[in-house]
Amino acid sequence: LSIDNETDTDGNSNSTAVASIGAPEDAPADFDKAIVASGFGRFNLILLLVAIPATCANMFESTTMSYILPIAECDLHLTLTDKGVLNACAYAGMIISAIPWGYLADTKGRRKVLVYGYLLTCICVIGSALSQNFLMLVTFKFLGGLMVNGPAAVLFTYLTEMHGPKYRPNVLMVVGMITSTSTLLLPMLAWGIFPRPWDFLLFGGLDIHSWQIFLLVCALPSLISGLVLYTMPESPRFLMSQGRNKEALEMLQMIYRINTGKPKDTYPIKSLILEVPSRDAQKDEAIYTIDSKSEPVKRPSRTLLESLRAGMQQMKPMFHKPLLGLALHCYTMQFCIFLGMNTIRLWLPQLFASMAEYEAEHASEGGSATMCTILEYSVNKTAETLTNHENACAVPKTISMDMYLNNIIVSFCGLVGYFFAGAIIRLIGAKRLLTYGLLVSGVLGIALYWSINSLTTIVISSAFVTVSGVAVSSLLGAVVALFPTQLRSLVVAIAMMCGRLGALSGNLLFPVFIQIGCVPPFVMVASVMLRTVPLRQSISVYFQCAFH
């Protein structure tokens, strides 16, 4: 990456050239022109480094429970239903907190939400690490989901607002890669911590085991993120939206100085377009607008009722054809895909642990077993820990090394799939990729039923997680392409909420279906994935109609 701005043929900075083309030097600049003029360099690189622990914190909060379930079932007296609740409770917190966090981010600022959100998440993770029973753990995981949802969503907004239009797609791609990499870190952490014989009393009364140390380590990304983001500036885009142009200009000058190494006074932009009246402005003050950059115009401030009416008017197309039907199709697809993908993804550690334990106990018989045998074994083993707890849990729980390796392989395949997703989309197109991806995911979901050994399970589950993950990315890309700019954020937010509701539902239903029989859980996963294929065809029709 080039640290300094590139120069043109006359030796002048490109950012300066961009700022001066088509307008007088002292004319107010809009945000895109101002952020481009600040350059791309050291500050942006620092920002992406900060995104690494922040993205890990987001992923850890919704995934850590799946890794502690096999090893903590004796300490917490867990039933299969309890395990499903632990996997799902973080998503419940995320669903409830979506709207309040969005309001706070748009009124109080991106930086405050990021700092306080991650620090509060850290407190909740520490609380879950110190939990002594199932109820305490569920409560702290629910609160953790409640807290992490705000910064997790705002992080994408904050990063894109700190970059010019040229770099925004690349930034989102980098964040996606970091997210995929963070899923690989969890099984590696579990591999390094769970086998350790760490059992001791803390403060004279708190029993601490290796799985609690694992959760404590998983609190570090959120702590680091909160502390580091405290030193970062507020988004200039947010400041401009609040009429705080003086502060926004100071932030842009600071970014320019860090990126270029030049004094702040040499920043080519001297004033910014006043998008809304400043805090000190009087009602009906003359202000600059984007549509009229050269002459000031009068714009009276709105009342709360007028702002509400304007917002409802903007959302009005969402409740009429064709956008209403299209949005409902997208919400249903997101619900189904997340239900299938996150159900299998979060239950894989438990399935691999049961598989490794069964193969160890039946090594003399060959060790291999079908998926139905493994599920039956898991149900019986969980029931034994509850009915005969003293004998079943007399020996400390140990997990075979194969469990960690299997999860690492699945996570690595998902990471590789994400790296090739862009090339595949360009090769066959986003619509075809979404259709074929959903179809293949549904087939793989039901194919797990016929898995005959651990190797087959690894291959099928790795392919399922990889293909369904690419399908999710394709669907979100379709949402962005199909809806008008003023409705995209709303549609994406509702779609993500529906996805989390699907993940919540799947993880609650999966243990119930396991106890019913071997076929129902895989039929559930396959049916919801295949159900989305005709919906995708309907979206394709809407897509074609939109351009006609």
TrEMBL record:
Q: Name one GO molecular function term.
A: transmembrane transporter activity
This chain belongs to the protein called Major facilitator superfamily (MFS) profile domain-containing protein
Which terms are listed as keywords in the entry? Answer: Membrane, Transmembrane, Transmembrane helix, Transport
Q: How does the protein associate with the membrane? A: Multi-pass membrane protein
Instruction: Give me the Gene Ontology terms describing cellular component.
Output: membrane
Q: What is the lineage of its organism?
A: Eukaryota, Metazoa, Ecdysozoa, Arthropoda, Hexapoda
Q: Does the keyword RNA-binding apply?
A: no
Where's it found, cell-wise? Membrane
Q: Which PANTHER family match?
A: EG:BACR7A4.13 PROTEIN-RELATED, SYNAPTIC VESICLE GLYCOPROTEIN 2
Annotated coiled-coil segments of the chain: none
Instruction: Report if keyword Transcription regulation is assigned.
Output: no
> What InterPro entries does the database record attribute to this sequence?
MFS, MFS_dom, MFS_trans_sf
User: Which Pfam families does the UniProt entry name for this protein?
Assistant: MFS_1
Q: Major facilitator superfamily (MFS) profile domain spans which residues?
A: 47-548
- Transmembrane domains' residue ranges: 43-60, 85-104, 113-131, 137-159, 171-193, 213-232, 323-348, 404-421, 433-452, 458-483, 512-530
